[in-house]
Design brief:
This protein has 559 residues and is of the alpha/beta class. The protein contains 20 helices and 14 strands. It is flat.
Length: 559
């Protein structure tokens, strides 16, 4: 609204001859870094100075004199020519009304979006690095649905490749006499077998030859190996589904590498015929050196298919079968070059679609080394979750749902970092009630619930606000932050920067605690102020709950 009002004022000045005729550039209205300057600010006068041939402060004063905006109590010209807008109490009341009604969080141009995330490999354990992927992907899905987009949550299971062959070799060689049915945690057992097999193959060239021979038999369809693969793959899938259920994450569609590999082999002759890929020393490659993207190997010289051969047909399937407008891949940052290569190959193939890679860095426990399934030093997700639940149970012995607090602590600790940041997960820090943690934010929600319950018992409702009562500065700070929620969610739906939601939740919690320490909410001798402040904290609770739910964290009523 402000942008349009300012544009109309500038046009009026041009028509009156106070400003020369020129095309009015984009007008940006932002939040001031220092809240004492007001609710909004714009530097448009500085932008117009060269176009109009006048000092920016003079232009700013002219614009100020032409503006009369409902809900704005004063306009100040500051510094070299910034326009600062201070809003009236009516503006703050309107924000609370909109907040409680849930207005303003729908994109103007909704899309059908497919978000591919999680993507674990069968025959390996689900570790804490996988958790970061799940939390980012799940938050993206939630945000995009919140903004009115139609979203398909997809999971691409790695059920083929050399790691499968190594695990199968380990099973039939190192554990040929094992009674598999008696094994308790079968998924953990597979991770152990894979790691041991990798070590044995690295240590002995004869073992490597035996593994490669088994791999060829498996790829040729050896009935016993295929049956063992199907049985053990299900062990992994069962464990993945158990973890997803615990994390309260679900998917609309599953893709499998074994199926996409067959589709890739069918499309390979066409790629060769069109010259998009070529044979090189027995392998099939896409030479992208001219685009400074190096070489992408689709098929090794031994005939084994790599990711690219599978991802090309899968990219087409997503758009053609699911009729999507945008495809997002949540995959670790090490694959950044690969996705640039993949998107370039698809472009050369004539496939011009909106495809994005959302990358993220490694996760390790504080003081630990980088994890590797090959080394066998991964931290299984279930072990981390169990450890954090145990600590939360000790810290919050009266909590009715320690697991929700624990999962919230883990999610928040990972989501508060941008994807470009490596994470050293600190278990002790993640469960603290003070600091940038999930429990700290959850506590703010629970504290508001306690206030509302106490007020209700005393006969207060908090459902209406008295327009004659002015806002305290601490109340204004809270409302300013609440007003940013719709815009932030819409921004994240475009930029994929989900860490900003965690930072926003922290700001809301911080400002609420600051408000609560200075402003008494329940005062039986001042019922009007009490009702107003209950109306405010109800709005805070609503936004805090929605923010937490978007990042997949429960909003507890008690801690």
């Amino acid at each position: 609204m402000l942008e349009q009002k300012i544009r109309e004022a500038i046009q009026g000045l041009q028509e009156a001859g106070a400003l020369s005729s020129f095309d009015i550039p984009e007008i940006k209205v932002e939040y001031p870094k220092d809240e004492s300057f007001g609710e909004f600010t714009t530097n448009i006068a500085l932008v117009l100075s060269k176009l109009a041939g006048k000092p920016p402060r003079e232009i700013a004063e002219s614009i100020k004199g032409s503006l009369n905006i409902e809900g704005v109590s004063s306009i100040e010209v500051a510094g070299p020519g910034h326009l600062n807008f201070v809003c009236a109490d009516s503006y703050f009341r309107s924000v609370l009304t909109k907040t409680l009604s849930g207005e303003g969080i729908l994109t103007k141009n909704p899309e059908k979006v497919l978000v591919e995330y999680s993507n674990p490999n069968t025959h390996k354990e689900f570790h804490i690095g996988h958790l970061r992927n799940v939390f980012i992907g799940n938050t993206l899905v939630n945000v995009m649905r919140k903004t009115g987009n139609e979203v398909i949550a997809a999971n691409y299971i790695g059920d083929t490749g050399t790691h499968i062959g190594k695990c199968l070799w380990g099973l039939v060689t190192l554990y040929k006499d094992e009674n598999f049915e008696s094994i308790g945690n079968k998924a953990e057992f597979l991770g152990k077998v894979y790691s041991e097999a990798q070590q044995k193959i690295d240590e002995n060239p004869e073992n490597e030859g035996a593994f490669k021979a088994l791999q060829k038999r498996f790829e040729a369809g050896d009935p016993e190996l295929v049956a063992l693969w199907e049985k053990t793959k299900q062990w992994s899938l069962d464990e993945f589904n158990r973890i997803y259920a615990e994390l309260r994450v679900s998917f609309d569609v599953f893709f499998y590498e074994s199926i996409e590999e067959e589709a890739g082999k069918k499309i390979l002759p066409e790629l060769l015929e069109k010259g998009i890929v070529r044979e090189s020393e027995g392998a099939v490659i896409a030479d992208l050196e001219a685009d400074n993207l190096g070489v992408l190997v689709l098929v090794r010289s031994d005939g084994s298919a790599l990711y690219g051969l599978k991802d090309i047909p899968l990219a087409k399937k997503k758009f053609e079968e699911y009729k999507i407008d945008r495809s997002i891949y949540v995959v670790d940052i090490r694959q950044s070059l690969y996705f640039k290569q993949l998107f370039k190959v698809l472009e050369l193939y004539g496939f011009h679609k909106k495809m994005e890679h959302v990358g993220y860095e490694f996760v390790a426990l504080k003081g630990g080394e980088t994890m590797s399934s090959r080394k066998g030093n991964i931290i299984p997700a279930k072990h981390l979750i169990d450890d954090v639940v145990l600590r939360v149970t000790k810290q919050f012995p009266e909590s009715p749902d320690a697991k929700s607090i624990a999962l919230g602590a883990i999610r928040f600790a990972m989501l508060k970092h941008s994807g470009a940041s490596k994470i050293e997960f600190d278990i002790e820090e993640s469960v603290r009630l003070d600091g940038a943690t999930g429990p700290y934010v959850q506590y703010a929600h629970a504290r508001i619930e306690s206030i509302r319950e106490k007020a209700k018992a005393l006969g207060f409702s908090g459902e209406t606000a008295n327009e004659s009562i002015s806002f305290h500065p601490k109340e204004k700070e809270l409302v300013r932050e609440l007003s940013k929620f719709p815009e932030l969610v819409l921004e994240i739906a475009q930029t994929n920067e989900v860490h900003k939601l965690a930072h926003y939740a922290l700001r809301i919690a911080d400002k609420f605690h600051s408000f609560y320490s200075e402003c008494k909410v329940i005062n039986e001798e001042d019922k009007e102020t009490t009702e107003n402040r209950l109306y405010l904290v109800s709005s805070v609770q609503k936004v805090l709950k929605e923010t937490l739910l978007l990042i997949g964290i429960a909003a507890p009523k008690r801690m």
